[in-house]
Every structure is written in C-alpha cells, then in structure tokens.
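Quick start: what a row looks like.
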Amino acid sequence: MSYIDPPKNTLPVSVTTLFKMKEAGNKITSLTAYDASFAALFDQHGIDVILIGDSLGNVIQGHSTTIPVQVADVVYHTACVARASSRSFLVADLPFASYGNAEMALKNATLLMQAGAQMVKLEGGKWLVEIIEHLVKQGIPVCAHLGLTPQSVNTLGGFKVQGKTNTAAQIMREDALALEAAGAQLLVLEAIPSSLGKSITESLTIPTVGIGAGPDCSGQVLVMHDAIGAFPGRQPKFVKNFLECTGTIEKAIKLYIEEVKSGVFPAPEHCFSD
C-alpha cells in the first residue's frame, strides 16, 4: 500500500509528459525531497518532478559540499521518497565519483532505480557521452546537468556562475547537444546567464530545468529547504523563500507552483546576466 492515497483523476508524470509539457510551453515544477512526508505533500499538490538530490549532503548531513555523499545515502532517501509518491516523476542523483566509467555508472544507477527512481542524474559534459549511451541502452533514463556542477566545486574554484564568457558559453551549448544526442532526456542548468539558459533550451528537443538559469528554461527546480527558508546562512541569488509570504508549507508549495507555471518566478532579481 502507498504511503498516501494518489491524487484523484491525475495521471503519473512520465518522460513523455515532460516532453509534451515543453512542447506546449507548460512549465515543469520541481523540488528536492528526501523523506516520505515532504514527498507526499509535493506529490499531492502537483509538483511534476521530485529530485532526490545529493544536496542532502548539505541540508540533511551538514556537509559544506556534496562530495561526501555516498550511493547508499541516495538509495536510502530515494526509497523513502518513492514510498510516498504516486504522481510525481522521481529523479535521483548519482553522487560524486559514482559514475567514473560505464560499468560503475550502471551498477550504481541500478541501485537507485531499484530503490524507486525513474531517472538518474549525472553532472558533466561531453565526457559522459559513452556512459549515458550505456545507461540508456540498459533502460535507465538519464538527466544531465551543466553549468555550476556542485560535485566539481574544487575544480571550479567555488560555487560560481558558469558560462559567462563566449568560449565557455559555446562549450556548454556543444555539451548540451552532445548529451541530448547520447540519449539524455532531461537537462538541469544551474547558475548560468539567463540568455545562455534560453539559447540552450531553444536548441534542444529535451526539456531543461533551471536553477539560476533564467525564466526561459522548460521548468524550474529549487532545493526544498531553500524554497521554505529552512536552511541557515547566505542564500544563493536564485533562491526565493515562498514560506515567508504565505505562512504555511502547503501554501508555499502552491505559490511556488503558481509562480513557476505563470513565469513570475524566477524574477529578474533571481537571475544572472551575461
């Protein structure tokens, strides 16, 4: 038996649903979740995609980066979320150094899928092409991730906006096309200029989900704790606290969905310029 009763007259979200949403201009809503209770709330209120992110290393485990997160951690939290979800599409992160080659990626992605994920997410550009091709051939849907890739924080020199130079922007455009050609069916774009988010989204058939990538992506995602102001410290520019102006978590979820669907969020103050 499911943890919750499924929403009435609502079909589960699938990869096909996400493609149709992009084609129709219907914005995709996504939030992270790590447990059954919040997953149930998001599912019931109509969040399209729940991301079981390695951001759990920050908001759950208290690390300063996502690098310490283990595959077993994501498997555990994916299983918790899956028990409470009947409509939302579930994407789970493959954590740091868990997909260095095709066989390693397949082994670890299989664990996430068996825990209840419907797609796995990997960070990186063209070097992932063969790995993505291998996963897709094995029946594992893939979400790619470009821009600020938190698992590469040490090589990036910190949490910085990416793609600001013409050269960097062109490399990212080429990476996006290569990842789509390899079989990725969804792409997260993080902390890049809005104009670059727009051009990449327009160049692809697959949907894009932005976090600090401007209003023209196919959808938006936020870390749950950021969206309700539950994470202490300085917030990234692209974050909005939806609980602050609503008073309850349920109203905050509804407002987030309304503002993403209508294009109100992200507003200019949440976006990066060239």
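That is the whole record. Strands lie at 28-32, 49-52, 89-93, 119-123, 142-147, 186-190, 208-211, 219-222. The radius of gyration is 17 Å.
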